[in-house]
Amino acid sequence: MIVRHRSLLILTTVLTTGALTLTACGSRDDDKGSDSGSKTTVVIGVDAPLTGQNSATGLGIQYGVQIAVDDANKKNLVPGVTFKVKALDDKAVPASGQQNATALVANKDVLGVVGPLNSGVATQMQQVFDTAGLVQISPSNTAPELTQGKNWQSKKERPYKTYFRTATTDALQGGFAADYAYNTLKKRKVFIVDDKQTYGAGLAKLFKQNFKKAGGKVTAEDHISVGDTDFSSLVTKVKNSGADLFYYGGQYDESEKITKQLKDGGVDIPLFGGDGMFSDTYIETAGKPSEGDLVTSVGVPVTTLPAAKEFIATYKAKKYPGDYGTYGGYSYDAATAIIKAIGNVVKDGKVPSDARTKIVDEVQKTKFDGIAGPVAFDEYGDTTNKQLTVYQVVKGKWKAVKSGTYNAG
């Protein structure tokens, strides 16, 4: 899904701690060997914003993976292996994500990574993982170019073999939102704003293209910066535009303030955004002014899926922080895809020297029923699950109002 851009840092060599093993990857819990029943430790890395901006959804990713790992260990899904999670905080900053990627690559126990949350962070991680042959599955990135290349609208070309995602792309999300706005909400004039980031700007652009194609009019466009808090001048522009809908490409951190200031300023039109806004934090922070606002998000509501019932119960029982409803299920499925691939490569706890490369190949062949829907990847590394849902704030809660797919052709 998503993004925060800042200038790149020149990274220094990252040193890892802990004893490495007798094999190229993986470590022994003790020195007694397999005859005594000891197991090889394999680490699933996680990269997401765990503090600060976007942390509610980032924590949902971390603990979605944690539950998958705990389930794998409990069920002994990979005999001879104990899985552990190593979660690193990128703070939604691309340079931090790149540094985290380097650290995870240097840790020989890491055989797969789930994350990041933000598309802009992903752009600075992909090459690091690809060079090392380490598989990466994002549960939330939606920028089309990550899997289909910069010129994806004219010629699709996969840039990195090691990158996959369980979330569908903005090529579908933007059109799905525009179709709902024009044909269901019957909106005809939209004011469009984005946060100038990879995810936000890309999503807003695709919404604009599809809304105009449907017959709608864009009254005006504007941009804000990440971290902005005063939107009084924007409110005036929207009020004078005559728009009957406000579309925002970006995260909940800013949009929750924008919608409050719009409504407080007398602009009584709904704010519509993408999955970067789909968080209970948005409603909690904006309060009553968020009533009637809308978002699109990937998949169908996890709470409606029978396969996710145990996952949700566990998340609540453990009192894990963050929002499991946004990407928790997709994170669980991403981690499970990696674990299943590892099971096809690591036998009796023995990790081959080329394990990482083999795991990438196994992930490409993934096919199973996940807790958030079917899990499989096409030739670009994109999920074959194209489901999307529109949610609306109704009586202080996100309510699913339409689920379906969108044909971007």
Detailed description of the structure:
- The chain is of the alpha/beta class.
- It has two domains: 27-168 and 304-376, Response regulator (Rossmann fold, 3-Layer(aba) Sandwich), CATH 3.40.50.2300; 170-298 and 388-404, Response regulator (Rossmann fold, 3-Layer(aba) Sandwich).
- It contains 13 helices and 15 strands.
- The protein has helices at 55-75, 94-106, 119-122, 126-132, 145-148, 170-184, 198-214, 232-241, 252-264, 280-286, 309-317, 324-345, 355-364; strands at 27-28, 40-48, 81-89, 110-114, 136-138, 163-165, 189-194, 217-223, 245-249, 271-273, 294-298, 367-370, 373-376, 388-394, 397-404.
- Strands 8-7-9-10-11-14-15 form a seven-stranded mixed sheet, sandwiched between helices. Strands 1, 2, 3, 4, 5 and 6 form a six-stranded mixed sheet that branches. A two-stranded antiparallel ribbon has the order 12-13.
- Helix 5 (145-148) links the parallel strand 5 and strand 6.
- It is elongated, with a radius of gyration of 21 Å.
- The two termini are 21 Å apart.
- Mean pLDDT is 91; it is low at 2-36.
Quick summary:
This is Branched-chain amino acid ABC transporter substrate-binding protein. The chain is α/β, with parallel strands linked by helices and 409 residues long.
Compute the average pLDDT: 91
Overall, the morphology is elongated
The number of domains is 2
Question: Mind telling me the C-alpha Rg?
Answer: 21 Å
Count all strands and give the number: 15
Q: Helices and strands, in N-to-C order?
A: EEHEHEHHEHEHEHEHEHEHEHHHEEEE
Roughly how many Å apart are the termini? 21 Å
Query: Main β-sheet: number of strands, strand sense, barrel status?
Result: 7 strands, mixed
Q: In the CATH scheme, what's the topology name of the largest domain?
A: Rossmann fold
How much of the residues is beta strand, in percent?
15-25%
Q: Give the helix level as a range of percent.
A: 25-40%
The CATH class designation of the largest domain is: Alpha Beta
Structural class: alpha/beta
Low-confidence stretches: 2-36
Strand order in the sheet with the most strands: 8-7-9-10-11-14-15
Organism: Streptomyces avermitilis (strain ATCC 31267 / DSM 46492 / JCM 5070 / NBRC 14893 / NCIMB 12804 / NRRL 8165 / MA-4680)
InterPro entries: Leu-bd, Peripla_BP_I
Domain Leucine-binding protein: 41-396
Pfam families: Peripla_BP_6
